């Protein structure tokens, strides 16, 4: 168990609170009385499930990856997935050697000592949670559960999901949770594209339906991380995950708002943020950008908001945060049109290139990317839009238009380049030759004549 530094803005009092953390250690459980886990089934092989399965393989466990998408399974088998380049070859080797078995057949769940559920929990265009995939996955796992099995849910969802979708249905099947089967929630903590936050070095939280459930689940999760901490219930673990992502949402919304304040005073928001970040307590920095994308921050808070609304419980700060995040891409559109207007370029004859479209640097992921509403918003004003992103060959817009990556853009052909996502190890020096550059990342220093959102 490695030492975990608490991220608390509480004037140093985290040292006094550290004792409140309950760390799991096998040494604290004398005479376990159960066989060590040998085989694990991972349900869902997306951005969470695949690294989880890969990590379990490296722990010398027999791992079966289950996914309902045949194309996804085929892509994993070929190694054509969004993993760091150094891991792709190891993934192919693991599949070829049989360390990671791939299948779409849920019947193999009955063979596993442990099951880890890693399926997406998106929201629709109205921000209504869509837990259909999670409901189906949990029902399938319950149907194939057997005595002695440990079942761990990792997907972010409503508080009470583990109890309603796993614990109660298992009890209805006649399996006593905590004795016959063990159930827990352990929220994923995957940071795609960031090698500094490898899952093995990122602490995990486990909340079991019983104390025995928590211990069993922790004995599985410890295979993919150096640190495991226990909380008193699945509900505590579920709300922990929501709190983490909502905190990040609030921080980013504030950073974006502060960037507009900095613009009012003619100041650089990055300079101000870094200066504030020198304070060793009471401040946790966030950086402004074109908006917030990905699988967590734009979606997960809506699960809590939806649930609270069912009980007429208000959360005004979170609600305002999510409205601010949703409006951010439109702010980029407004600023782009302003830059064009200052150059006497009318929208109907303007050509705008978006540089980078994935939601995050270093990943091939368009989910909830601010680039989509930015491109669509500019197009609605009559602007001819295009994009350059070597990681994504095609981009579908909201009106059904399908754009193709501009592989080698001629900087002189564009009235404006909008910097959205800057991928590592890609040469962007050509952007210097663009007549006008709007930097929505606030950190694109290659172009002296750039303007900020």
Automatic annotation (TrEMBL):
In this chain the UDP-glucose/GDP-mannose dehydrogenase C-terminal domain maps to: 353-446
Q: Does the keyword Oxidoreductase apply?
A: yes
Cross-referenced Pfam families: UDPG_MGDP_dh, UDPG_MGDP_dh_C, UDPG_MGDP_dh_N
Q: Which InterPro entries match?
A: 6-PGluconate_DH-like_C_sf, NAD(P)-bd_dom_sf, UDP-Glc/GDP-Man, UDP-Glc/GDP-Man_DH_C, UDP-Glc/GDP-Man_DH_C_sf, UDP-Glc/GDP-Man_DH_dimer, UDP-Glc/GDP-Man_DH_N, UDP_ManNAc/GlcNAc_DH
Reply yes or no: does the keyword NAD apply. yes
The protein's matches in Gene3D superfamilies, at most eight in alphabetical order, are given as: NAD(P)-binding Rossmann-like Domain (3.40.50.720)
| A Gene Ontology molecular function term of the record | oxidoreductase activity, acting on the CH-OH group of donors, NAD or NADP as acceptor
Q: Which UniProt keywords apply?
A: NAD, Oxidoreductase
Q: According to its UniProt record, which protein family does this protein belong to?
A: Belongs to the UDP-glucose/GDP-mannose dehydrogenase family.
Name of the protein described by the UniProt record: Nucleotide sugar dehydrogenase
Q: Which organism is it from?
A: Halopolyspora algeriensis
